[in-house]
Amino acid sequence: MLVKTHITKIGVTLFAVALFYGFIYMLSNSLFATRPATAVAVGADGKALLPSVDEAAMPAKAPVAAAAAPAAEAAAPAEPEAPPAPAYVEVDPAMITGDAKAGEEKFNKTCKACHKIDGKNAVGPHLNGVIGRATATVEGFKYSTAMKNHGGNWTPDRLDIYLVSPKAEVPGTKMSFAGLPEAADRANVIAYLNSLPR
Fold first, then answer.
1. CA distances from 36 to 33, 39, 53 (A)
2. CA–CA distance from 51 to each of 43, 54, 69, 102 (Å)?
């Protein structure tokens, strides 16, 4: 019984000591609390430079925003985006000078392997209604970024330039066709494409 009482006294004493030291620890933290160190600018003489009243009142993020402002001013002003091309532009029939029948023959020999004229996409987009149509707008066809950025509409003049050498006119295009070097062939193919329904 004496041993049990002795163990109880020791336990109560240890608890009281732990409680006392915990109280002292919390009291000292509240009385002697310190703030984390902050960076202070130092002058040439080695003394701390105190901020002016205005600087002290500023929020902490203001210097970062102020530093970013000159960089934003140095950047070139953004140019307004060009409005998107209309889905179709009307084409003056006088611009079509080729022979549609001869163009059909040339199309069947050089273009038909990749382009359909039944409204369905193949290796390339279908070419129904291509004359006057905005570039890279055939539904369901995955165009290259280069072609998407080409912009404008397929007028006879633009198509004539493109068909000379697609890769030279639109670097990065997926179209691997070497081109039609003969002006008459291009004019005939354009006449044939113009004869197709939209």
1. 10, 10, 21
2. 12, 8, 21, 84
DSSP-assigned beta bridge partners for residue 133: 88
- Phi and psi (nearest 5°) for 150? -65, -40
> What are the backbone angles phi and psi of residue 49, rounded to the nearest 5°?
-95, 120
Dihedral over alpha carbons 110, 112, 114, 120 (to 10 degrees): 160
Q: Mark residue 191 as left, alpha or beta (left: phi above 0; alpha: psi -120 to 50; beta: remaining).
A: alpha
- Hey, how many other C-beta atoms are within 10 angstroms of the C-beta on 142? 10
CA 131 to CA 134: how far, in whole Å? 9
The tokens of 104 are what? Answer: 């059909």
Burial class (CB in 10 A: 0-12, 13-18, 19+), 42: exposed
Name the phi and psi angles at 133, rounded to 5: -75, 150
Number of residues that this document lists for the chain: 198
Instruction: Over range 20-26, report the average pLDDT.
Output: 80
| CA dist., res. 183 & res. 180, Å (int) | 8
Structure confidence by residue, pLDDT tens digits, 67-103:
444 554 555 555 555 567 788 888 898 899 999 999 9
Question: Exposed, middle or buried, 164 (CB in 10 Å: 0-12/13-18/19+)?
Answer: middle
Provide the β-strand partners of residue 153: 134
Strand partners, 48: 42
